[in-house]
Structures are given as structure tokens and as C-alpha cells.
């Protein structure tokens, strides 16, 4: 079990999916989390292209918000039982980037740094950082992830069903 150092961080409500998909899927002991943008209270906190109107620092902050939203989706998946979270396996970060922007990894460090702060060694993960031409809602950043969890069972011994929504 990973120890979570919340240090005053309060998770938002998980944003509702903007299409025909779930915020997460569980198979075995892995939780696959759908991409989360930098929405705060239903509004995009950072829009546009990093490197063209948005700075690396603004992109970094957007990635931190994405990670907070990703953790909100993880909270749904584990029914707020953080003792089940073992480690962060992988993150994939997408940056709405200017054509010549080459600092995509520095932007996605916002998400990586936050999960590292919260989980320590168990927050260290494999990662891909990709610059893209556009993202949903003109978001500056989107991050998806895979986490390892321990099994949970109901009193009847079966795993809990998917519970959608926020």
C-alpha cells in the first residue's frame, strides 16, 4: 500500500465524461483512467497553445490540475479507499503545443511532480509526453494514467461493480 501525503490537497469532483466512455475501467489490479483536462468547476482553467500564448509555467500548472482531476477519477474507482492504491504505473500527457514547441516534458512534469509529492517512491512512473495540435475544449493539457490497486471485495466475496458518475 502506498502512503498518500495529501499536504492539504483537496480533490475536486471528477469531471463528467464528455462522450460515451467511462472515467475509468478496472481489469485485475489495474485502473485505467481516461484522460482528464485542466477543468476547474466545469470551466477550462488554461486554454490555447503552450509556447504560443501560454508559458511553460502555465502549462505546468495546467498539468497539475489534470493530475488532480485524474486522482478524482481514481477516487471513484476505489470508492475513496486510498489504502487500495499501490502505485502509479504510467502517465501519458498531451500538450496543446505550438508547432515549434519542444518543452512538452517540462509541462507534463506538473502531473509527474504532483503524484511524486503525494506518493513518494510509489508515485514514480513510466511516462510519455506528446505535443499535439489540439485537445478537447481547447484545453492546454490532458493527462491519462494507469494505477495499480489491491483487490476489494464486497461482503459476498465478489468485486464491486462499476459505479459511474461524479
From TrEMBL:
Pfam families: YjgF_endoribonc. It comes from the Bacteria. Gene3D superfamilies: RutC-like. Signal peptide: none annotated. Residues 6-140 form the Endoribonuclease L-PSP/chorismate mutase-like domain. SUPFAM superfamilies: YjgF-like (SSF55298). This is Enamine deaminase RidA (YjgF/YER057c/UK114 family). It comes from Natronocella acetinitrilica.
Amino acid at each position: 500500500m502506498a502512503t498518500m501525503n495529501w499536504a492539504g490537497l483537496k480533490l475536486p469532483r471528477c469531471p463528467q465524461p464528455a462522450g460515451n466512455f467511462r472515467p475509468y475501467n478496472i481489469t485485475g489490479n489495474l485502473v485505467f483512467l481516461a484522460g482528464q483536462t485542466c477543468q476547474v468547476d466545469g470551466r477550462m482553467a488554461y486554454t490555447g497553445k503552450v509556447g504560443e500564448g501560454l508559458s511553460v509555467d502555465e502549462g505546468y500548472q495546467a498539468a497539475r490540475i489534470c493530475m488532480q482531476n485524474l486522482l478524482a477519477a481514481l477516487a471513484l474507482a476505489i470508492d475513496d479507499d486510498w489504502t487500495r492504491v499501490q502505485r502509479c504505473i504510467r502517465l501519458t500527457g498531451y500538450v496543446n503545443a505550438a508547432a515549434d514547441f519542444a518543452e512538452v516534458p517540462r509541462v507534463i512534469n506538473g502531473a509527474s511532480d504532483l503524484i511524486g509529492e503525494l506518493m513518494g517512491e510509489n508515485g514514480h512512473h513510466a511516462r510519455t509526453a506528446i505535443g499535439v495540435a489540439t485537445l478537447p475544449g481547447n484545453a492546454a493539457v490532458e493527462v491519462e494514467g494507469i494505477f495499480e490497486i489491491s483487490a476489494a471485495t464486497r461482503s459476498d466475496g465478489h468485486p464491486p461493480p462499476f459505479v459511474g458518475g461524479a
